Structure prediction request, 183 residues.
Amino acid sequence: MSPETKKLLRNIHRWGGLVLTIFVIFYCFTGILLNHRKDFDYFIIKKRSESTVPVSDIKRLRKFIDFYKAQINRKDDPTVIKIKNGKIIEFLYGSHGKTTFIIDPLKGRMEKIEKIPAQPWAWLNRLHKAFKTADIWIFVTDAVSVILILVTITGLFIFRYRKLDYTLIVLGLVIFVLAAIMA
Prediction:
């Protein structure tokens, strides 16, 4: 390999690495957070308040639910019941409505929707879901992310930089800040 080719490759590696540094750190950091999102309450702050309501009989509600459970031929209670536009009833079963029954009593129509994971994408998506992923996988991905962060940061201190390199680092930081604001 000629010296000019080596120099070109080194420059491509340096410039590309400097721009990508922030993205690599951001990707690794958010990956660690996603692996442990259950520990952070899914990044949601829950504000609770409580008040009193009149005590009422639940028989009417049970009668309503049991009537539609008989229509859809299920004995188990749905995970979620939604009423849309004051007239459409949705019974959601499973995590995130894996099976959904949409009932329109005014039209006498019922639609059943089943969500089936598209493979291999669903499997890849589950890798960041700590509550369904093996602990060893979470440990490996966290360790790789921490190592990538350390290698990326230490790489910033190894090279001698020119003005263009600093410009690329600042550009990467600006893009990172913009991405964080938009997220």
In short: The chain has five helices and four strands.
